[in-house]
Amino acid sequence: MSARPALAALAGVALVLGGALSGASATAATDDAPPAVVSLGDSFISGEAGRWQGNGYGDSGGSAYGTDRAAHDCDGGEGKCAHDPKRVYGSSYDNGCNRSDSAEITHVTSVRVNGTTYPIAPADRLNIACSGATTAAVHKSSFKGEEVQLVQLDRFLKGDGVGKRKVRLIVLSVGGNDIDFSGIVKTCVGKFLTYRYCGTEQFRAEVRQRIASLESALTATINAVHGTMEAAGYGRSEYRLVVQSYPVILPGTGYNRYPETYNDRYLKTGGCPIYDKDADWANQGIIPGLLSAITSAAGGTAQVMDLSDAFAGHELCAKGVRAARQGETPANPIPEAEGEWVRWIGVPLVGQGQVQEYMHPNAYGQRRLGSCLAAFANTERTAFTCGRP
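Structure (tokenized):
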């Protein structure tokens, strides 16, 4: 990326925030403008892995036993299909932002703000989030060829190309990429494939330090969101800013339906290539650590939605749920209640979808997160825990 686009993006943010600091005049949309909601941040809210409704393991081609929502024009046995990921991700598939049609924000039909409930039309649920984004991508750096997310938000607030909207809810999911969570997972998978644990005390201490360093970046991001809104003429009582945590995506010890035995068949039938001990560390250390950093950064300026247990019983490889099986189709897929809500880890298979989709909420998981957000949006609460389904 050249310096010129980055400088231009930074200048845009400076103008937005500078207006708020200098008291420059700005006019927010009037209260009779259509109300809108916006999502910012990373893959856990952009809709990454929304292509999949459950997991069809092994050598299931075609529609992958009905799990591939990008499959179309299939033959009678669903063994051969055409595939078009843009049916799910739209044009965002081109740069890998992967904003899916089932993303969390698409499930918010109304929001309650300062005693009033506002209906939200489908066209007014804006998804600016991008898979892989860090806090920097939200408020100060261009990413994947796109402008800073808050610059994009500012354009929306001004009604560029769509007309004025009154933004009533902003939802932010960010921080996982700042601590390189995907790299942590990659390390654990690599260790599993060589019969070793990844959660050594040295590595755990390094991850704890990453999480400890995250709070200041989150605080700066939250302040920048408010600065953008204030520069557009909004008062704090006119909208809600929600920062969400991350869900547990792997079952802990005793809840994994697969044995801890690595072989090709294990992976091809859906086994998770991570030891229970390492999954326990992620579930009991990393996820709570991120929630703590998010809660501290939010302070009294943003609301917090705790998603830790949102997938309980439907994690990847969990007991009590299953993979899709032969005979299930896109029109008659594995029932949501019976399926995993997290995209598989397809090691060493590469025939289905993208690696970047691994371990993200699939279409069923996004529906669950959407229901959590919709429930929170219609309360007067400032904190919300989305418990076991």
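The beta strands are 35-41, 71-72, 82-83, 110-113, 116-119, 125-127, 166-173, 240-244, 303-306, 383-385. The longest strand covers residues 166-173.
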